[in-house]
Amino acid sequence: MKQWAKRAVLFGFDGAGTFFEQTPTPNIDRIFRSGAVCRRALTEIPTISAECWGSILHGVDCRRHGLTNWVTGKRPFPADSPYPSVFRVIRENRPDAELASFCEWSNINLGIIENNLGVYEVNAKGDEMIQAAVDYIRTHDFILIYFHFDIPDHEGHAHGYGSPEHLAAVTLADSWVGRVTEAIEKRGWLEDTLLLVEPDHGGTPPDEQGRGSHGGDSDAEKYVSFFAAGGGAQHTELHDMMTRDTAPAILHALGLPIPDTWNSRVPGGLFADVPENLPRPKGLPVRVEKPKLKKESGAFEKELAGLMPVLHLPFTTFDVLPEGTERSGKLYLVDGLRGKALRFDDGALCMPCPLEGGSVSFTAWLRLEAVENRMPVLSVRCAEDGSAWFCIAATGEDHLVLSVRLFDVGKTRHMEVGLPAKRTGTWIFAAGSFEAEAGVAGFSLNFEPFMRQLLPGRQVMGKGEYAQLLLGTDDLSTPGQRFPGELEDVCVYNKALTDEDLVKLKAYYLE
Ligand SMILES: [Zn+2]
């Protein structure tokens, strides 16, 4: 196999999309002038960092590597996965290779690159990170360096993608590309080093609050720019590229074999020996368990209305949320079971909930990851004093906890519900209810009654009291609580759901 390059450097621009076209990038313009460019490379859906960087570094789609922002913050990537990172493939072929990763977002070193490869890892910000890299290059003859620049994404969330602040961050990170490339040039390595610039995803323009987001499949979110120069990269324009093709490109340049478990390929035309229009291999297939849901026909909304939820949240866009909804932190709308699902990062929602006291129930499709501490998923509270009336939280590997406040005895009662084994990561339909007059709390999973308890008190929610529904938290004033999972089709009812209601819901949702 021909070796085109002795080294490769991947500059990762988090959240920069194709915004290089709207802001000065003098270093990229100069360095990549005679290289290859792809103006619209397609990234993974959902357009979220862990999913997208996972695919860029592991050469597979995001269902295969299974990485999420939450998973990457918690545990190392399995060292024996059938989908190795580009770092692991290099290590297995070149045991002495010097490998390095400089990241502004530590999840990449923690949870995306395998931890047993001896990669030189630095988690630092801005100048400190670049200085560490320049020092490293001066003293090490490396084979692969990966950079993660978080600042474009940070500014995109805060001010909107394409805002002056976001564009300025892309230009700032461009200067870092210049400084690193200068260090490589000083070593005389510019010719035989494959340099790559690539974002993981883009993002949306400023919303009404002046903020941006990503996770969806709009053009501004799903397309990114890709630049390649040196190390055999042709002077050409690339078409039909996916960002997961980056890992094969790096291996091909280094003359190393590409794993046949990957469903990616070297972009056609990037190197002189790679023809265009080769099909992308299927790789090792993956099985994903999903309940079979009926397709939404429009009639569904009416059928569900037979149960008359006081609130029904299908999460088609953030704009359809009730008036007065407060949104905090990072939230994403991603492909769910039937439509869109709400994915929590560190974000939460709080909205008016038109309950009139008495009995209360909720239903939701729910996909959760294993958690260590108690993580509130959904709660109903009194708007005036903030006291919780009703809350469902995730705890431990496979537990949900339903808490109900019993006003007449002034106590909160918790009932713990163990999920059927190994439900973590799969979709379940959860329903919780409290029948105020009888003082009975019930919980059901996948349309089957699971637990029913007579509680030692009654819930007497005063008429005319003003309720709020909170998602992802039970207290908006405590930041950083994270429910690691997704919700779809959340409904709140001002009554206790009966077993017949569950049968109706099952017929409504399932094929
Ligand atoms: Zn982001």
Written description of the protein model:
This protein has 511 residues and is of the alpha+beta class. The protein has helices spanning 26-31, 49-58, 62-65, 69-74, 86-93, 107-112, 126-139, 151-159, 164-186, 219-222, 246-253, 299-305, 499-509; strands at 7-13, 36-42, 99-103, 120-123, 144-149, 193-199, 223-229, 236-237, 311-313, 326-328, 331-335, 340-344, 348-353, 360-368, 375-382, 388-395, 399-406, 411-418, 427-435, 440-445, 448-454, 467-471, 485-493. The strands form three sheets. The protein has an eight-stranded mixed sheet with strand order 4-3-5-1-6-7-2-8. Strands 9, 11, 12, 14, 19, 20, 21 and 23 form an eight-stranded antiparallel sheet that branches. A hairpin with a 3-residue loop joins strand 16 (388-395) and strand 17. Helix 7 (126-139) runs parallel beside helix 9 (164-186). The longest helix has 23 residues, at 164-186. The model has no long low-confidence stretch (mean pLDDT 89). The structure holds zinc ion. Zinc ion binds at residues 15, 49, 153, 157, 214.
Features:
511 residues; alpha+beta; eight-stranded mixed β-sheet; eight-stranded antiparallel β-sheet; 13 helices; 23 strands; 28% strand; binds zinc ion
Summarize the structure.
This protein has 511 residues and is α+β, with helices and mostly antiparallel strands. The protein is built from 13 helices and 23 strands.
Determine the number of helices (DSSP H or I, runs of at least 4 residues): 13
- Tell me roughly what share of residues is in helical segments: 10-25%
Largest sheet: 8 strands, mixed
* Mean pLDDT over the full residue set: 89
